[in-house]
Amino acid sequence: MSDTEVIIGLEVHIQLTNLKTKLFCSCNSDYRGKEQNTIVCPICLGLPGSLPVINENAIGYATRLALALDCKINEEFWFFRKNYFYPDLPKAFQISQYNKAGGKAFGDGGHITIRLDGEKKEISLDRIHLEEDPARLVHKGSIASSPYTLVDYNRSGMTLIEIVTNPVMKSPEEARDFLNQLKSIVQYTGIADLDLEGSVRVDANISIKGNPRSEVKNINSFKEVERALKWEIQRQRNALKRGKELIQETRHWDDKRRVTIGLRTKEFEKDYRYFPEQDLVPINIDKKFIEEVKKELPEMPNARMKRFQEQYQLSEFDSEILVLDKNLADFFEKGVQQNKSFGLDDYKTYCNWLMGDISRWLNDNNKNINDSKLKSNQLNELIMNINDGKITGKIAKGFVDEMMKGNSISDIIKKSGKKRIADEATLYKIVEEVLKENLDIVKDYNGNPRALEALIGKCMQKTRGQADPNVTRNLIKKKIQ
Ligand code: ZN
Ligand code: MN
């Protein structure tokens, strides 16, 4: 099937939202929710005669990311002008980096490990570079049907890092995992909060092997990237099937109609007339600076994942998922270290709760663990109550919503009136009733291993989750035999 092989390369623009000021001026970089066109100055408006000055912290942040991604940092480089005319770009050029004509990117190479269905794959990077963000264009409805365009220059001059991968991804799923891993690494470096609206924009290059590629521009979220890729692959395959020739072109992802639309046949690099930005001095990064940044870099997800396997004896799978969200992993470590009586089994239980019921609740409520009211001592208390036999795991699952609202575990238990039932005499009566009512399942008992689980489930139903599963299991076995 090599003639239908998919080739995907990504260009990911990340806004360094944790910087206090823009890339070449001292305007506040916290522009979200502010009145349009109020956070601007002659530099980021591109007024004639204004001169850019590099933000030193942006160099520090770029260094952090380069180290985290294993890029080779270019210790001397200068900025270039990338020329094009568009309403979001008042100077008619974007200050960027260029890795040709004597220019250099910020960092070359590097890689991110993705894991799909238990298999590891290295996604190699071509380069990362710094550039300024253009202004924000606001369309009424969709870009194709809007009768006018509004421009908000508050975003103009924000710091972007562009991460360019090699064209080595083979499916939308690989691209999605790449982006999730990248987001995680960015979170660990502390340079940006990619949950902020508009903080990440992806251009995706897609082709079917042997054919020209199309570039889908400005996809605004990771979820949309996967959708756009799937749609575009299907479009290209259909065109080839009908004997149509594909062309190299730039397309737009319309996330309302969920289709890509041809915008223009691909501009070529020479159209940008790259040339050195003479208004900025060359940047020199010395080894000492790099060493200092390296020292301050926190433990990265890959290293943390290995440590979680050793220190807490979590499986590779568990540690990988837990570590992906730094906040969740921090919560885990704080929680298990709070309780000195916790052992290996409890680490696993703690991890299960975070990855299962709690993550589900956070997803459903569109929240991060840090902006929920859950405290680690609550989860500790919940697990201790299960361990002490006061409640069953089944009862505890019913408490998640209350717990996430910050209510104390003892209050939740008291209010619910639920407790574990382990008394054999009480349970024996319930087991007898259940067996009588479910003769068909009992008949199945010898041939079907799932019959026992089904009977335990019925006992749970009858006791509203309060029956101790182990005691119940033994009683059913005894009674049937
Ligand atoms: Zn400014
Ligand atoms: Mn770019």
Task: Outline the structure in words.
The protein is α+β, with helices and mostly antiparallel strands and 481 residues long. The chain has three domains: 288 residues, no CATH class; 118 residues, no CATH class; 57 residues, Arc Repressor Mutant, subunit A, CATH 1.10.10.410. It is 40% helix and 19% strand. It has 16 helices and 17 strands. Strands 1, 2, 6, 7, 8, 11, 12, 13, 14 and 15 form a ten-stranded mixed β-sheet that branches. A three-stranded antiparallel β-sheet has the order 5-4-16, with no helix packed on it. β12 and β13 form a beta hairpin. It is elongated, with a radius of gyration of 28 Å. The model has no long low-confidence stretch (mean pLDDT 92). Bound molecules: zinc ion and manganese (II) ion. The site of zinc ion has 8 residues, from loops.
Can you count the helices?
16
Ends apart, CA distance between termini: 56 Å
- Helix coverage percent of residues? 25-40%
Q: Ranges with pLDDT <50 over ≥5 residues?
A: none
The set of bound ligands, ions and cofactors reads: zinc ion, manganese (II) ion
What is the assembly state of the chains in this entry? single chain
Report the average pLDDT across residues: 92
Give the C-alpha Rg: 28 Å
What characterizes the major β-sheet? 10 strands, mixed
Shape: elongated
- How many β-strand stretches? 17
Structural class by helix and strand composition: alpha+beta
Strand percentage lies at 15-25%
The total number of structural domains is: 3
